[in-house]
Each structure stands twice: as C-alpha cells, then as structure tokens.
DNA sequence: GTTAGCACTCTCGGCTGTCGAGTGCTAATC
DNA sequence: GATTAGCACTCGACAGCCGAGAGTGCTAAC
C-alpha cells in the first residue's frame, strides 16, 4: 500500500487538527472541516489504511485517530525548508537583540526568554564550548592583596572572568605589566591553544611559572571541558498550557529534568552539531520526554564555536511556528555573537 | 475560654502530625500516638474548643481537624529562638560555601541550591541592593577599539562589570591611567556616593566629563535603583512533593509566580529588612500563595547592605527544620560576603 | 472532669446504567 | 472499482447509587 496524494492530504489534515485541539480526530471532522470532497465513510477507509501503515493511532475503538510519531516525522520532514517568520515578528526580535552584550550568559538569557514567549513552549539555550574562541585581551584586576580577577575578552567581545590567587608582592602596576605581557603572547589564540603556549612560556622563562600555571588552570575552567555548560531555561510553566501535562506526575518528571542542568546539557549535547534536529517522543531517549518533541538548532559564536538553542513542547506542537521562531532566533544569536564589535544601541550616552 | 496547657499541647500535637501526614488528624490519633493520657472523647471536647477559638478547621463533619493559619502562627511564634541546625549539616554547609566567590550571583545560586536541597522546599534568594557597597578598585578593560569593560571590585571582594563606549583615541595604557585615577578618587566610597563625587569631578576637570558620565550611568545600573534585582529560584519541582499541589492549576499558578522575577522580587522586597519574617497563607497577600508559607530572612553584605533569602512551602511546612536551615544559610551567606577577603580553598594551586 | 457508647454524617471506592461519539462492515449506488 | 448510506457495535465519560469506614457530637454514666 502506498501513501498516495489523498492519503497524504488526509494525514496532514489530521495532524493540523490535532495540533490545535489535542483531541482524537474523527472522520466526520476531516470531511467537513477540511473540505475533502468525500464522505466520512471514505475518509474512514483511508484512515484505516493509514493506521495500518503506522501513521495513525487509535486510543480506543470508538475514538478518532491521533497521529503517530511516524506521522509527525513525515510531517516535519515535509516542512523543512519552509520556515519563515513574518516580518513584524522578525522586526520585534531584532530590536530585542539590540542590547548590550556582556557576558554570554546574558545574551543567552534574552534568547531563551524571547523564544519561550513567542512560541509558548519551554525553551532551553546552552552556551557554546569556548575552546574555539580567540583571545583579544587579558587583564588582571586586583581584588585583594592576595587575589586578582582575570578578565578575558574574546574576539567576539564576550567577557569571561575568574578569581585567582596572586603573590602578595604584586601590586596593581605589576599586575598590569603581567597583563600586557600575557595579552601580547596570547592574543589571537584560541582558549584551547592557551595551555600549550603557557607551557612553553614556563619552559622559556622559569620565573613566571606561577603566573602561567594560574592562567592555565583558569583556562581549563573557562573552557569547561567536561563541566556542564551553562543552560538557561525559560517558560517552564508553559508546559501547563497543554493537556498532555495535566497529569501531575508527568509534569513533575519533566520539570525535574528542566531543573537538572547536568542531564539537560547532556541531552542537548547529544544532538551533535547539525544545523538543526527534531526529536519526537521516544526519539529523545528519555522516559519523561515520551510525549514531548524537542527541537534544537545550533548557533555560532565566531568561527567553529557552536551553542545550542532548543524548544520543548508536546509532540503535537505547532512545528511550523515553533521551528521558524527557533531558527530565526538562532540566526540572530549567531549574528549578534559573531559581529566582532558588540553592538551598542544608538544614542547610547555612556561613552567615555 | 483560654488556651490552657493541655489545649496547647493538643494543638501542638495536631500540627506536628499534620505537618508530616497532610491528612486531617483524628482525636484517636492524638490520644494514642501522642500519649496524652486522656481518652479520645476528652480530646474531642478540647478540639471542639480549639475550633471555636479559631485554631482548628474541619474539612467536613466526619473528618479530623487541620490546623488553621492562626494555629501555625502561634506555633511558629512559639518556635522562634529555638532554631538550631545539627552539627553535621552545619559542617556540610560550611564546606559547601568554601568556594570562590566572584560575582555575587554565583554565591547566591549556591545558597539557593543548598537551601532547596536541604529543606525539600522551593528556595528563593535575592541579591542585595548595592548602594552601600564600598568600592575598592575600578578598572577599565579594553574590549574593542571603541568599547571597554568597567570592572568594579567592592570591599567584600564582589565583582561587578559592565560594557561602556570609549573614545577611539584611548588605548590600553590610557585606560589604565584613567582606571588608576578613578580608583584613587572613588575607593572607599559606596556605590551610592559615586554619583555625587563624579559630578564634582566633572566640575573641577571639565576635560573628563565623558569619563565621569559614563561611569555614572554605569553606577545607576549597578545599584539597580528600581530595577528588579536578581532573584534565584531553586527546587521548583519540590512543590510537587506535597499533595497540596496535586492540583495542576494551583501548581501552574505558583510556578508562574516563581518564573516572574519581577513579581517575586516585589514579594520579597515587601518583607522589609527585619531579620526574618514568616507569612502564612493569606498573609502573603497573593491568591496563588494561599496555601503556602513563605519564610524569609535577610543576609548582610558588608555593613548595611541586605539581601533576602527565603523558602516557599506548604503552610504545614516543617517549620523547625526549614527555618533553622534558612537562618543558618543566611548567616553563612552574610559571613562569606562580609569577609573582606574572598576565601579560597586550602591547597588551591592557581596562585600567581 | 472524664469516658463509654451510640447515632449520625460525610467521604471514598466500586458498581451500574445511560448517553454519545465514532468506528467497521455490508450492501447499494455511481 | 470507488464511493457512500445505513446500521450495529464498542468504548469512554458521566451520573447516580450503595456500602464500608472514619470520625465526630452528644448523652448519660462514672
């Protein structure tokens, strides 16, 4: 049996209907509401075929049909490429991203917020691995007589910092001198390369061992090799908008997952670096995500560095809207973080 | 009718029982389990009196009694002063706070996490107003040819930063010179005083107007006058541990509140600066908090600056445990943030 | 003042019957 | 051969009912 034109249209209609109503779709509904030009009985025959083909499920014999995950898969595969966000929303989003970026976490927070508000689903945004970022500037700032803050500015204007111990004999001027020296050596290199360079530095000028080792340890932290990267979640309570999560234990399981940043970043990391990925229901591989779809997309910071942005919603999510919003925000994020100058709004007053 | 010794003991027993079981307490339970030495019938008479006095409610005629908010109020008032956390937990908590503090947000995050894990309730921690913090050091770090990061280190080792525009003619050395000058002028002053000082600076040396104005605008932001201050929430999913929130709509309302940082900080701000405050049910003034107790305590950063730490749980919360944990963590937080040196763990290697 | 005894009330779970929605099948029709 | 009308059938949702169990309030006795 093949999936001919009409079967496909019927399947599409069923999915469209189910996405908004969340109740099993009856043959009569399709026949009337979607103007198929055939009677319910015919639709029923087709539906029966579709069920046999694995595209439809039937909760019980006297209920309508609901799309199976296989159906959603077909549906989104068909959809791919047709994602376009209306101009008005695009404009509004662009404005929203015209803010000052400081720590990458802030930008990521804005993105998560926007994404969940626009889609009404829960959004998850993960900061990228930072090995590929290039250092532009490094500076030590005295925080007490024996500690200093290392501030690293990367080529995309992103700032990272960390407190380290310093020897008491080093005053502010000495730290500045060290900063200049380090900036000279390290600028243009990626965070990933720093370790090697510092090692060499230690070999060549043994006097500075401690400086180098300090920075090196710091780098490890900043790269966050195996550490859980920062994950921002927004719109958690949105899951209650969907009857799928009227069941308290289900809701609890999902919310617990959203709170567990480790598992969540594991989940997102497993998507690899494909431009985008959609996992429907069991494809996610987690029991608490069995009636969820998680869609993710990557964004770029500079060259080669990727972060992940995603949405979590019921399998019957409004794929078209959700995905186009997500992809657009991902683009915006990439653009904003890859401009070598952090943009400042026009008319900004705080100029020195 | 007065609340004599025995009535009080009975009330206490009812509350203790209800706190753990969450089911209405029967006269027989009290008589047997709490060893009152009188028969259920006597207890019933007393309970009847207690109900008349407003300390007990009865869901329906053939159910046991549940404590009213008035009862909880009496109970916690009686409890005040007897909060003590066992040594083992204290030790564990102290260890947990022996980490590197950088941004105040990080410390606050740790505190929130610890509080929710230990109590099994939801925790909320708000960063303090920062007007009262004293500047120790200020440094400008070049982030691009036309922008710089202002890093401010306060007397408690807390770091704040912000990006500002700078004139293209200023190179790294020039920025360092400006930093030194500003540090000299501003160190020892509170963030709140900066504005005045900068104004004077502008008057005296008109050449530097832009510098000063830039920093001043920044200060406004950092103080966050009326801006919502940072609020960290942890253990959201804990609310599902309590049958009070088996109702999805209730859970949704509360979780939405927890997500709305503006309302949440408003709620916490309204507590004033008392050492601690406990609001039971309707005392919170929000419909979604009607079966919740919210307990808050203040913590200090340096002198005069206070932040708020709090827990949200069902009205029948385990007050003794919850409050002693909260108060202890508040203390730890104060201590850690008020030590003028940010502590570093022993054996730390990253020393320059 | 305390308590035993008992009638009374109310909730909860299980069971039943009805209603309505929707299907599957068959036979007639195009 | 595809489509459709008609009808029997199935199943879930819902309301109503019943009995069991929990717990009280009251009364009368101690």
The largest chain-to-chain contact, stated as pair and per-chain residue counts, equals: A-B, 61 and 60 residues
Unreliable stretches of chain A, pLDDT < 50, 5 or more residues?
A: 340-352
Helix content of chain A: 40-55%
| End-to-end gap of chain A | 73 Å
In round numbers, the mean pLDDT of chain A is 84
Can you tell me the overall shape of chain A? elongated
Number of domains of chain A: 3
What kind of oligomer do you see?
homodimer
Quick rundown:
Helix content of chain A is 45%, strand content 18%. With 352 residues, chain A is α+β, with helices and mostly antiparallel strands. Chain A folds into three domains: 75 residues, Orthogonal Bundle (Arc Repressor Mutant, subunit A), CATH 1.10.10; 153 residues, Beta-Lactamase; 89 residues, 2-Layer Sandwich (Enolase-like, domain 1).
Question: What would your notes on this structure say?
Answer:
The structure is a homodimer of 352-residue chains. Chain A is built from 12 helices and 10 strands. With 352 residues, the first copy, chain A, is α+β, with helices and mostly antiparallel strands. Chain A folds into 3 domains: 5-79, Arc Repressor Mutant, subunit A; 87-128 and 228-338, GAF domain (Beta-Lactamase, 2-Layer Sandwich); 135-223, Enolase-like, domain 1. In chain A, the strands form 3 sheets. In chain A, strands 7-3-10-9-8 form a 5-stranded antiparallel beta sheet. In chain A, helix 2 packs across helix 3 (40-52), helix 6 runs antiparallel to helix 12 and helix 8 runs antiparallel to helix 9 (209-223). The first copy, chain A, is elongated, with a radius of gyration of 26 Å. The model of chain A is unreliable at 340-352 (pLDDT under 50). The interface between A and B is large, with 61 and 60 residues. Chain A binds a DNA duplex (30 and 30 nucleotides) through residues 24, 26-28, 38-42, 44-45, 47-48, 58-64.
């Amino acid at each position: 049996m093949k999936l001919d034109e009409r079967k496909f249209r019927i399947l599409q209609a069923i999915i469209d209907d189910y996405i908004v109503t969340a109740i099993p779709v009856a043959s009569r509904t399709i026949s009337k509401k979607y103007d198929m030009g055939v009677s319910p009985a015919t639709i029923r025959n087709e539906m029966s075929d579709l069920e046999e083909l694995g595209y439809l499920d039937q909760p019980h014999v006297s209920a309508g049909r609901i799309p199976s995950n296989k159906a959603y898969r077909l549906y989104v595969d068909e959809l791919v490429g047709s994602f376009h966000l209306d101009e008005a929303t695009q404009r509004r989003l662009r404005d929203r991203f015209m803010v000052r970026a400081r720590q990458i976490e802030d930008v990521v927070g804005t993105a998560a917020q926007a994404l969940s508000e626009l889609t009404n689903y829960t959004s998850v945004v993960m900061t990228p691995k930072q090995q590929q970022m290039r250092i532009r500037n490094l500076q030590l700032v005295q925080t007490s007589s024996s500690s200093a803050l290392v501030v690293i500015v990367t080529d995309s204007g992103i700032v990272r910092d960390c407190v380290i111990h310093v020897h008491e004999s080093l005053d502010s001027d000495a730290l500045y001198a060290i900063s200049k020296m380090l900036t000279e050596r390290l600028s243009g290199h990626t965070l990933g390369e720093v370790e090697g360079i510092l090692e060499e530095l230690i070999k060549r000028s043994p006097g500075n061992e401690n400086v180098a080792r300090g920075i090196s340890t710091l780098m490890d932290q900043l790269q966050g090799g195996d550490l859980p990267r920062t994950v921002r979640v927004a719109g958690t309570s949105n899951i209650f908008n969907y009857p799928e999560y009227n069941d308290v234990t289900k809701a609890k399981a999902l919310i617990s997952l959203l709170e567990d940043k480790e598992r969540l970043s594991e989940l997102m990391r497993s998507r690899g670096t494909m431009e985008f990925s959609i996992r429907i229901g069991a494809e996610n591989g987690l029991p608490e995500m069995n009636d969820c779809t998680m869609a993710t997309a990557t964004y770029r910071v500079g060259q080669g560095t990727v972060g992940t942005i995603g949405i979590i919603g019921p399998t019957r999510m409004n794929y078209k809207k959700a995905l186009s919003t997500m992809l657009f925000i991902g683009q915006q994020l990439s653009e904003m973080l890859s401009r070598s100058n952090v943009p400042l709004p026009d008319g900004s007053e705080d100029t020195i």
